[in-house]
Amino acid sequence: MNNKVSIIVPIYNVEHYLEKCVASLVNQTYENIEILLVDDCSTDNSSQIAKKIAENDSRCYYIKREKNGGLSAARNTGIKNATGDYLAFVDSDDWVSEDYVKHMIELAVKGSYDIVVCDYIMVIDKDEKLANSLGHLNDASSINEKIAYIRNHACTKLFKMDFWKKENLMFPENIKRGEDMAITIPLLTRTDKIGILNEGLYYYLQRNNSLSNNQIKKIDLQFYDETFNLMLQNKNDKYVLEIEYHGILEMIYGKTMLMIKHKYSNKEIKSHLKEFDCKFPNWRKNKYITNTNFLKKIFIKLASMKLIFILRIMVEMNERRK
User: What distance in Å separates the CA atoms of residue 189 and residue 174, rounded to the nearest whole number?
Assistant: First the structure.
């Protein structure tokens, strides 16, 4: 198998994580890879670490951006410099199993897939737990189910380069959080060649300073609306219910949860929920809600009834259990 895989690693102030991440890539059992280390103007020792790695392995390329532009800009820089037949993204504080590329590319070639998706393992402190992000999905699932239930992470996915270039989508550089949704979900709707690999091959490190864990101050969540609207703009209109379901997960569940965590008022949360009602007046009847996990389903039901005070109790109890 001679297919070359380009792996893009955006880098910004990750000196404590970078070596472990890249070590997991250079030690892949599948060797026909290139690793694009895109430095987004780091101010710690990340640049020196990345340069040294590139000097010691001919498959690694150090690329320094002229100015800091964020995750999307770094990924786009990597895409423009990639020369592989397939494209993958690995965040610089995460890592992958040694057979990650091998298993992904084998399924991609075998099924002539444009996109292959694997499960991932959540790493919190030193605890590792399979995310079960694919749920009941398998390779034989219908294309509609795949589009509805596959999550929006750019990582955990392998993209055929010809397909990516044909669709001509790039990560939105004006959006600094949650940008994956604007690209990955629309790409899923633009092909019926999607492969499912029910293995946890990607290790996602949950850092304490992530948005979902940061409750110190009220954060502007406007990026949620921006990336969601961009997803609606980029999508294939063929998959109405599937896109609506992603909206339910991202806006009714995801954004509402963060608004509660970051101390938004009941009035602000109700206004947000009413806006979604206007866009998708029949969303409560979406058939995919049935297969949502129990607690998430309860949260969505309470949100649909605008019972914010009960949602606050639910979120607070969940935080206490952590």
Answer: 23
Token pair of 195 as six digits: 């492969």
Instruction: For residue 259, give the H/E element and its range.
Output: helix 256-261
Q: Is the pLDDT of residue 210 over 90?
A: no
CA 111/CA 133 separation, integer angstroms? 21
Q: What angle do CA 95, 152, 172 make, to 5 degrees?
A: 95
Beta bridge partners of 38: 10, 63
Mean pLDDT along residues 224-249 = 96
Radius of gyration, CA atoms only, the chain = 20
Strand, coil or helix: 33: strand
The sign of the dihedral angle between the CA atoms of 277, 316, 268, 152 is negative
Q: Would you say the C-alpha torsion 20, 26, 28, 34 has a positive or negative sign?
A: positive
Task: State the angle between helix axes of 266-279 and 308-321 in degrees (0 to 180), rounded to the nearest 10.
Answer: 110
CA distances from 111 to 16, 154, 167 (A): 38, 20, 20
Helix or strand holding residue 116 (H, E): strand 115-124
Residue (of 156, 153, 186, 181) closest to 169 by Cα position: 186
Q: Is the CB of residue 186 less than 8 Å from the CB of residue 232?
A: no
178 exposure class (CB count in 10 Å sphere: 0-12, 13-18, 19+): buried
pLDDT of residue 211: 45
Using the predicted structure, report yes or no on whether residue 234 has a pLDDT greater than 70: yes
What whole-number distance in Å separates Cα of residue 203 and Cα of residue 128? 8
**Tell me: the pLDDT tens digits for 24-79?**
999 999 999 999 999 999 999 999 999 999 999 999 999 999 999 999 999 999 99
Confidence band of 209 (pLDDT split at 50, 70, 90): low
